[in-house]
């Protein structure tokens, strides 16, 4: 038996239930993984609250790292004892042990600890596809990035610095501003006392930026649009403050702007591409360009407390569960 978080209804953190589950043996094309560190992401809250549909009852959680305990028939590139991580596949990473499709498992390189890897599977790969695929950054650009001190944000700060990109990051406090700057964010905007669009125009001599990466959503939509240069791109990659609703005529009125709502699943497949993304990410880690460790840790049994902390916006960087 293994301990796992299950949900039977949508709602607040209290709907997360710790239960005993029977894991069983892996079938064809599967592997059984014993987790060592489990990531907590804002997308988990979307599933918990019902913003993203999820059959119930179900497990929760998108990504984790661990050690392969057993493999099923037909699995050739993953072996017992391998250290692996994953970020796609069935929901259910909030667990001690689980059976997974072997094709979604990513081998972890020596030199990258389990704790570090658990902060990078979803968050680091998100930074990769945002910066290298959705709106590919070449170096020399000035960008606006919302929630720069968040889990993805701190990795994005470091990646932008490695690429030679000038990053303007929004944060909610002076403390978070210092953390973002320490990780490579060039300029910070404290949203509780500064006007985002006005500050961006000041920092860019009135030109605006060619791209805004906005994971906040409703509360920052207008500021994001007003920060863009003509024909600029709004990458709406999250809705932590609420969904984005926009009239396409507004995009025309504000400078013939582009807008995209990317999803990881459309940028990470096939498997060879996923492994290539991970290789680039871990290459930055091994080179010392990206340093990432959990800033908040909770026991698996305290997953509800982890969600409360994340929703309060009082966390910085990555949050993990320890099984």
From TrEMBL:
Gene3D superfamilies: Medium-chain alcohol dehydrogenases, catalytic domain (3.90.180.10), NAD(P)-binding Rossmann-like Domain (3.40.50.720). It comes from the Bacteria. The keyword 4Fe-4S does not apply. Keywords: NADP, Oxidoreductase. Residues 11-321 form the Enoyl reductase (ER) domain. This is Quinone oxidoreductase. It comes from Variovorax robiniae.
């Amino acid at each position: 038996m293994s301990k796992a978080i299950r949900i039977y209804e949508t709602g607040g953190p209290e709907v997360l239930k710790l239960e005993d589950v029977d894991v069983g043996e892996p079938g064809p094309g599967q592997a059984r993984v014993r987790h060592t560190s489990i990531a907590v992401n804002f997308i988990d809250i979307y599933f918990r609250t019902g913003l993203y549909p999820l059959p119930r009852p179900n497990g929760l959680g998108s990504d984790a790292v661990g050690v392969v305990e057993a493999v099923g028939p037909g699995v050739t590139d993953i072996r017992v004892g391998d250290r692996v991580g994953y970020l796609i596949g069935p929901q259910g990473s909030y667990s001690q042990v689980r059976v997974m499709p072997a094709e979604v498992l990513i081998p972890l390189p020596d030199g990258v600890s389990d704790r570090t890897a658990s902060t990078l599977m979803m968050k680091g790969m998100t930074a990769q596809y945002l910066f290298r695929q959705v709106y590919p950054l070449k170096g020399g650009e000035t960008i606006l990035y919302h929630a720069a001190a968040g889990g993805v944000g701190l990795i994005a700060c470091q990646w932008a610095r490695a690429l030679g990109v000038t990053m303007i990051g929004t944060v909610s406090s002076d403390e978070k501003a210092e953390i973002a700057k320490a990780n490579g964010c060039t300029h910070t905007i404290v949203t509780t006392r500064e006007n985002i669009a006005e500050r961006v125009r000041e920092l860019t001599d009135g030109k605006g930026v060619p791209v805004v990466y906005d994971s906040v959503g409703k509360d920052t939509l207008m500021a994001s649009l007003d920060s863009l240069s003509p024909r600029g791109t709004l990458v709406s990659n999250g809705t932590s403050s609420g969904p984005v609703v926009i009239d396409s005529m507004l995009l025309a009125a504000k400078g013939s702007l582009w807008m995209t709502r990317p999803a990881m699943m459309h940028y990470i497949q096939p498997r060879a591409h996923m492994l290539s993304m991970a290789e680039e990410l871990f290459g930055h880690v091994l080179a010392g360009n990206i340093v990432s460790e959990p800033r908040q840790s909770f026991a698996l049994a305290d997953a509800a407390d982890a969600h409360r902390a994340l929703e309060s916006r009082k966390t910085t960087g990555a949050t993990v569960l320890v099984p």
